[in-house]
Amino acid sequence: MLSRIRLFVLPLLALALMGAACSKTPSPKDAASSSLSPSGARSTIVFMTDFGTANDAVAICKAVMVGIAPAARIMDITHQVTPYSIEEAARFLESVSPYYPAGTVFVAVVDPGVGTSRKAIIVKSKKGQFFVLPDNGLITPVMDRDGLDSAREITNPNWMIQSAISSTFHGRDIFSPAGAHLAAGWDFNLVGPEVPQLVRLTPKTSATTDKGITGDIIALDDPFGSLVTDISGDEFKNLGYNLGDKLRIEINKKSVTLPYVKTFMDVPVGDSLLFIDSRARVSIAVNQGNYSKKFNLEPPGTIFIPRKGAPLKER
């Protein structure tokens, strides 16, 4: 009896082992369709949009990603980018991407030109990260910092949602599936033709003269309402100020006096301050308050900081 059982069970075990081996063979279309990187770590998709959280758009995009790459880890930068603000999205992408390793897939959908002739692309940086986004300049700061390896237009329909493509929701139909296929190990070179030149942003930059620095208020650090400027900490330090100095500056051509301090609690609660923020930019805040609301200021705006000892009236 025992020998008969063995004769029955052994062929079944052999068939099971053969089936397991066959299941590990990828199809030609998605060769290497594992959601694991070569090191064995789970692939990561980092997602950012201006869709907000009051509707189902973000959830739908994530559902598309999970359906294609179920083992991938999906993380968020924000979905509260100021609507249509490519410059703001570019700044967030530049700030966040250094903290992720090579192989990370960023899906960034801030796309006021959706449905037009603008290209949907995947960009690979020299750091080995991938960026799935519209060709509208959003990638410019990252490429300026990390360098461009290559870029391709998403034209292969196998990389898109397998249903009709909407003219207004490429986040769901093109960018999310393309990012998920990358995370699942699909060959980047098969997504479409090379893009020889990317659209570039031309962001405003501060200007330094012998009188001081003229710059712009480019954003709010919400929810705190702090003013973010395009003046770098290094530029500011060349003006000669020391911690504890009081500066008489101009914001939107109105004179304002602020102490230059290291952190918020260096001034009393409710007082204003000028400081160098965590991204090494000059910023203006209220300790435990909201500068933007308190003084009714929002970007865009202008700022002028004179050199130490130079009066404003000589500008």
Folded structure, characterized:
It contains seven helices and 14 strands. The protein is of the alpha+beta class. It folds into two domains: 30-190, Rossmann fold (3-Layer(aba) Sandwich); 207-310, Bacterial fluorinating enzyme like (Elongation Factor Tu (Ef-tu), domain 3, Beta Barrel), CATH 2.40.30. Helix 2 runs parallel beside helix 5 (170-183) and helix 3 (86-96) runs parallel beside helix 4. The chain is elongated. The model is unreliable at 1-41 (pLDDT under 50).
How do you describe this structure in short?
The chain has seven helices and 14 strands. By secondary structure, it is of the alpha+beta class.
Unreliable stretches covering 5 or more consecutive residues: 1-41
Radius of gyration equals: 26 Å
Order of helices and strands: HEHEHEEEHEHEEEHEEEEHE
What number of structural domains do the residues give?
A: 2
CATH class of the largest domain: Alpha Beta
Oligomer: single chain
Number of strands: 14
What is the CATH architecture annotation of the largest domain? 3-Layer(aba) Sandwich
Distance between the termini: 103 Å
Name the average pLDDT: 87
The biggest beta sheet reads:
8 strands, antiparallel
Shape: elongated
Strand content: 25-35%
Helix-strand makeup class: alpha+beta
Level of helix content? 10-25%
Q: Which fold name fills CATH's third level, the topology of the largest domain?
A: Rossmann fold
CATH superfamily of the largest domain: S-adenosyl-l-methionine hydroxide adenosyltransferase, N-terminal
Number of helices: 7
